[in-house]
């Protein structure tokens, strides 16, 4: 290919540009944001200061495309933590720890800054500060983009839509006399809040370094909370809830939420550590997916990636891994020589897996006003049985972790042998009481 245009310099767009660099003579990334020259947030990522995590398969893909990335992130304070240092809880009950991928909490601006720097240094990548507002086409295929400035970046053999969940691709297709993709939407009304806390060297919370706490749909306050190091001298803590229970900006409220969190670590954080900044909040109104695979007509020379395809409930950590998987699918499709529908078939497998993981759990939320599909009660019962079994059965816990880290498809959890183990697994009668050791006092600075 001679030239490819990537609309959007998000992580999805940058990863697509990295893959395309290997097959195109020129890759033009069009991005409207002022891009910081440091690890700072930008306008296009209002959620960038919230907790982010790189799941297992995403870590492998990032390391493949950027071999020195994790060494550089470590120098900037980002570190993965082993299963011995982290725990996952369900309603205060601890899942069995399973050796596997380290938890990789990451500050989104730091990751994006490093990836952007690597991509824009590639010899065939060029950045254009502008906004894509439409497409140009001829002979049934897309051959370029329209820019807000009315400038030209030339014709293209391929255009990538990486403009995110607010993508206008459906409108652009209508202007070219193509139908937009069918859209599915699930209203969630999720809110989450994040605060940084001061951390003294090697500090642990209830003898743990990182904690993930799921409060299930049957709890009084469904949601997910996470606490993990954000470098050697900071903790990052995120709490989330839905509807009227969404967290606000009050530091006192944030502290109260930590104190009543049923898992280990959170109350210790509130008791032992000082806030290192204000409470930052973000609201996520709905999940959405665009089913491009259902379109019978679609112009050649155009494909979407990342949130322009599907955007999921962020508490499951699927956003950045999905962007990486879409970029990988893009590379495989280009190597195959198939038409655009071959790419959409690959996307469908990826989106279905992530959608199934999140939607089965989301539909159990009591505040959700949505029609439950046929078979939902059975799927919910299976999901709850698997959740319970991860507390006591190491085989189920291992397979569950494989699915979480995107190494295995969710359907592998439905194998008859695994289901039998899940439904027969013993369940703790109650959550174990969290033992709070005496606070470890920070060394004096004087």
TrEMBL record:
InterPro entries associated with the record: FAD/NAD-bd_sf
The protein, known as: Dehydrogenase (Flavoprotein)
Naturally occurring in which organism (per UniProt): Actinokineospora alba
């Amino acid at each position: 290919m001679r030239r490819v245009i990537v609309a959007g310099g998000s992580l999805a767009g940058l990863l697509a540009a990295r893959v395309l660099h290997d097959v195109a003579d020129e890759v033009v990334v069009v991005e409207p944001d002022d891009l910081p020259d440091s690890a700072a947030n930008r306008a296009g990522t209002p959620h960038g200061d919230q907790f982010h995590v790189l799941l297992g398969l995403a870590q492998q893909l990032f390391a493949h495309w950027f071999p020195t990335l994790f060494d550089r992130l470590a120098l900037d304070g980002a570190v993965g933590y082993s299963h011995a240092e982290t725990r996952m809880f369900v309603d205060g009950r601890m899942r069995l720890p399973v050796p596997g991928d380290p938890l990789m909490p990451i500050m989104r601006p730091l990751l994006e800054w490093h990836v952007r720097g690597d991509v824009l240094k590639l010899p065939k990548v060029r950045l254009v500060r502008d906004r894509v507002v439409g497409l140009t086409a001829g002979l049934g295929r897309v051959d370029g983009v329209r820019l807000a400035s009315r400038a030209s970046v030339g014709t293209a053999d391929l255009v990538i839509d990486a403009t995110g969940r607010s993508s206008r691709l459906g409108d652009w297709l209508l202007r070219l006399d193509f139908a937009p993709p069918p859209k599915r939407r699930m209203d969630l009304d999720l809110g989450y809040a994040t605060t940084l806390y001061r951390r003294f060297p090697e500090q642990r919370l209830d003898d743990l370094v990182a904690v993930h706490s799921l409060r299930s749909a049957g709890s009084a306050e469904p949601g997910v909370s996470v606490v993990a190091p954000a470098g050697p001298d900071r903790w990052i803590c995120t709490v989330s809830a839905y509807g009227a229970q969404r967290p606000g900006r009050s530091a006192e409220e944030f502290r109260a939420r930590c104190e009543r969190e049923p898992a280990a670590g959170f109350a210790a954080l509130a008791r032992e550590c000082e806030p290192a900044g204000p409470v930052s909040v973000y609201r996520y109104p709905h999940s959405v997916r665009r089913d491009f695979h259902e379109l019978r007509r679609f112009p050649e020379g155009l494909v979407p990636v990342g949130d322009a395809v599907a955007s999921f409930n962020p508490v499951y950590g699927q956003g950045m891994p999905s962007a990486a998987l879409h970029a990988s699918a893009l590379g495989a499709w280009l190597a195959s020589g198939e038409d655009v529908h071959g790419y959409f078939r690959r996307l469908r497998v990826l989106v279905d897996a992530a959608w199934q993981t999140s939607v089965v759990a989301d539909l159990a939320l009591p505040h959700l006003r949505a029609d439950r599909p046929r078979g939902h009660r059975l799927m919910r019962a299976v999901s709850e049985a698997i959740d319970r079994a991860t507390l006591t059965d190491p085989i189920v816990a291992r397979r569950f972790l494989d699915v979480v880290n995107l190494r295995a498809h969710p359907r592998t959890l439905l194998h008859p042998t695994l289901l039998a183990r899940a439904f027969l697994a013993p369940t703790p009668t109650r959550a174990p009481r969290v033992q709070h050791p005496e606070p470890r006092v920070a060394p004096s600075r004087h």
